[in-house]
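Board notes (copied after class):
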Amino acid sequence: MSFSTRFIERPVATSLIMVGILFVMLGGLTRLADPDQVYDKSNLVVQRGTIGEKIPYGDSVVEVTRMKFASAYLEDGSSEDDKPVDTNGAFVALEWDTTRGTKSPGSLRPTLTTDGGSVYTPIGGTSGDGVSFAQPGFGTTGAVVFEVNPADLKGLTLNLAPTQLYNVLAETVEVDLGVPSEAVAQKLVDGATPQYVIPKSVQRVAQ
């Protein structure tokens, strides 16, 4: 093999190695940039339940105690001058109760999903925009409120997912809200209360 041939092969081999390293780095950045793709089936635990059922989340507990449909909402403590917020669709209020265990449950991201593929997020800027936990040994009650499309509510499910971005054992909670058909959904919408008052979250000693 001549000197000139060896001189050409070495830069080519080096370039191939550098390209391989670049692809590995890009793959790692992609995983960090897209947390929804981080969790594999082998390390994702889904805890399922229904309204009124105490659902374990680590050593903590989550329960949806009541679901209310409403045409408008106000926050608890609003003044007489505050006008209710109304909608052309419907509001769904989910009243919840959480009990904190010894391990930190972290932050949870609540969404509503339907069989039709809709994903509803909580109304921001209110006391009804999330689900929280107190300190160990204490419980919390509150409500989370969503604005929804009355025509797409079949299979309505509350999803509580962790917000961490790293690849560890993760748990999510799915609560079946008991809307098996659009006919049932329509009855719930027709029976909506004119106005729902969003309660402030309250902490208590765990029972």
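Comment from the instructor: The CA atoms of residues 84 and 109 lie 26 Å apart. The chain has a mean pLDDT of 82.
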